[in-house]
Amino acid sequence: MKHQDIIDKMTVEEKAAFLSGKGEWDTRDIPRLGIPSIFCSDGPHGIRKQAGAGDHLGLNESLPATCFPTAAAIANSWDVDLGREIGEALGEEASALNVQVLLGPGLNIKRSPLCGRNFEYFSEDPYLSGKMAASYIQGIQNQGVCACPKHFAVNSQELRRMAMNAVLDERTLREIYLTGFEIAVKEGGAKAMMSGYNQVNGIYANENQHLLRDILRKEWGFDGIVITDWGGSNDHVDGVKAGSNLEMPAPGLDSARQITAAVRDGSLAMEELDTVVDDLLDAVLTVSDEQKGKSGSFDKEKHHMLARKAAAASAVLLKNTDHILPLKSGCRVAVIGDFAVEPRYQGAGSSVVKPTRIETIAASIAEYDLQVIGISRGYKRTGEADEVLKKEALNVIEGAEAVLYFFGLDELSESEGLDRSHMRIPQNQIDLLQSMLQVNENIIGILSAGASVEMPWQTNCKAILHGYLSGQAGAGAMLDILTGKVNPSGRLAESYPLRYEDTPALRHFPSTERNAEYRESIYVGYRYYDTSKVRVQFPFGFGLSYTEFIYSDIKADRQGVTLTVTNSGTMDGAEVVQMYVGLPNAIVFRPEKELKGFAKVFLMAGESRKVHIPFDDKTFRYWNIKTNRWEVEMGTYRIMAGASVTDIRLETELEVEGTTSVYPYHPAMLPYYYTGIVQQISDREFETLLGYPIPDGRWSGKLTLNDAICQMYHADSFLARFIYRRLTAMKKKSEEKGKPDLNILFIYNMPFRALAKMTAGAVSMDMVEGIVEVVNGQFFGGMKKVIKGFFANLKANRAYEKRLARGKGEER
User: Fold this and answer.
1) Domain total for the chain?
2) Which of 26, 79, 229, 282 is catalytic?
């Protein structure tokens, strides 16, 4: 134990209470022992510290902070140095706002384009996700702040996210959904980890010993703290046994009483309790000490310019017909789109930042050498048709040499707590685009969206610049690229399918009942499209530049691959060299190629440079379910260098020795996994991959503690069904306004158990059990339990608080 002296002085009650939050964002302090409270804050792309009383989804005003581009945008930069620079700025701002734990970055895998929170995540590829996350973490922790990557693990849908079971095989778990976290821990040195809401193969992530003990702590050597997602704890006694340290936000003392009772009856060993207390003590004392003497301010202008630099480095030029971009000096332009006046620069949910300032296209374009002939909103961002706005836009674009059309996904399309139902941009925006084409064909589309979209309309644009959700300084960054002040260098960190029906998880996302079956296995994103030869709109890694790059002289040895890259154009610029590895005729099924390294290289016009991309422990490995370890298959590997997964410029071969002759699969029993055609995997083939029967994920006849409140539509109780209908009506009403009500969404998808985890001790688990009985039609028995539980909980809380105040344990 690092702090045995303090632990020896703590009562069991103090130890148990210490493992849960005191308030919405802060941990419990113990003044008599000199244990301070530390403050947690959301902050994947900016600090969200509320000025007044804290609430989970940000109804109360937050303090101003720099709103950087979201992770989905920054991943397109493929620039770990930039990630580290952003991380340092985030850490500096956290420190200035007296925040000790920054809840981010988010690095769940983009299994489906429809996940409503994809804007917070880096990529569909675990290697790129992990490298970018590690750079953020290093930067944040350089400032004495704990980074807390999230959500560990296999958290890839928002619908019923707190009552969902991810069913997947061990190889898919390791290779796709854990590799990014592994890199974040081993290379980033993360000091904290947030567990996910969901179950993983039937066990809640926060009490999953395989995830938290076997893999995170023993295999990866993680020695930091595990924090639950807010309201994500199911049973914190089991959480403590698994090595989870801090239950957030404010479950009150009911959990603490359960822990003390478990110690008394021997179901939880004192050693287990002391271990998690010691880890949390170490984190609290260390970060508190590192924060002493820190400045209470940060350079807002400097950070704003960094946000602008980041947005420019992350924007992706998808199309540039006839080299219409960059715009010529003095070009007559029309500016169209609601997003040009009121930008869409971040997603909705717990990550929302109150920016220090916001740039807009309408206000900023006057600073550039362009002749603006008119500005029109053109459409309503809430989606309804407006002929007056449309006619105004059509009048404005007459006579323009270029039409700058700012459009994309609206606020309702992307939000925490809500998955998208389709991949389309609102139809009124596309109708306007098609109408403008009849008046002026020189249309340049500037997209704002945090996830991939279908683009059947792309032929209507001569150029497309995708800024993603580009943060508070995105407007200036886009104008810098449009005018040629900056050469675009972003490359897509996710694939853009032609249509949603082409995606690999089509039939199993989101889960319709409890189980989310990951039948596509390792074939996520480009791994599926590339292997199965499914045509896409834009491939993973794709992006254009205002200059050209030539690759030459590739060589590979046991250390890595080396090649020469030449900027053969007339403008300075940066290229992202991507290294892919594949094994033809492999014994173990695998994608045709996988990203295993990359380098972003800035070259002046005419400059050549030798680029070396090293191999590492992840270059050739796969998870062998028979040997239960990482193995390397013997063979002649293809080592490829390219500008995207489909634009391979150079290739060589390398003989690699194997590590085992024990192979995990029989090809005849997994025919579709060996072809990569995985949209319609049968039950039998999926069960063969799993190694056990598919769990029954159907909802039972009676609701339980772990069922979601939105499932009350089939409750036995008339009152419960009435509440469900009212919640649904409120949800629909908020959606009709164009902005989701985040608190309603949270409640809608929340399991009953969370009532005891997020009410600061007002509701106990005994009371929740009574509520569930009421929902299941046992009104009088349930209400009796609720009322009795209320008074018992109130009495027990007061007694516990008195013991904490005295620093004495329970009297025997």
Assistant:
1) 3
2) 229
